Amino acid sequence: MRPLPHERPPRIEPLGPEHSMALHRLAQAPGLADVLFDGPAPTYDDVWRAIESAEELRTNGRGDVFAVLLGEELIGVCRLDRDSPWLAAAEVGYCIDEPFRGRGLATAAVGLVVEQAFAALGVELVTARCLRTHLPSRRVLEKLGFVTTHGAEETPAPFIGFELSKRDASRPRLTSTASRTSSSGPK
């Protein structure tokens, strides 16, 4: 399913206390609690700790956690993190609620976060990991220009690593044949 013609693209904003109720609701969805909170059924206290952790990450200059919004509805979360504010690399992680998957919204949101990493944090490299078997997540990264890290395809680990350099992100990407033909119209 592609984005609906009337559907606006998602927007991101720093995760804060104003998102607490929606974040708690979002985290109750199957699979998202494990991604967001490392365990099932987070409490409101868990949500507040996550928001405090996001604010600490932001304050320390190490990254940020973003609410992904469609209109005013919280549909997911993206995290941008680096081990030190002096490192030139950061890792992006993301999760989108099931009803909003398969519509290009994760790709758009992660793209916004990557732009933020290069512009506001000044990083030169953004990395990401996903389960080797999670093809939709791999496609999100590949559409944005991420490439697998050296040797990632050969290792038996359950996760596969990706990276995107600032230099490579600024290069225009070739579009698929299908999108070229559909946008070019009849000749």
From TrEMBL:
Residue span, N-acetyltransferase domain: 21-169
Position of the signal peptide: none
Biased composition (Low complexity): 172-187
Keywords, alphabetical: Acyltransferase, Transferase
Region named Disordered: 168-187
Stored Pfam families: Acetyltransf_3 (PF13302)
Family membership: Belongs to the acetyltransferase family. RimJ subfamily.
The name this protein goes by in its record: GNAT family N-acetyltransferase
Species of provenance: Stigmatella ashevillensis
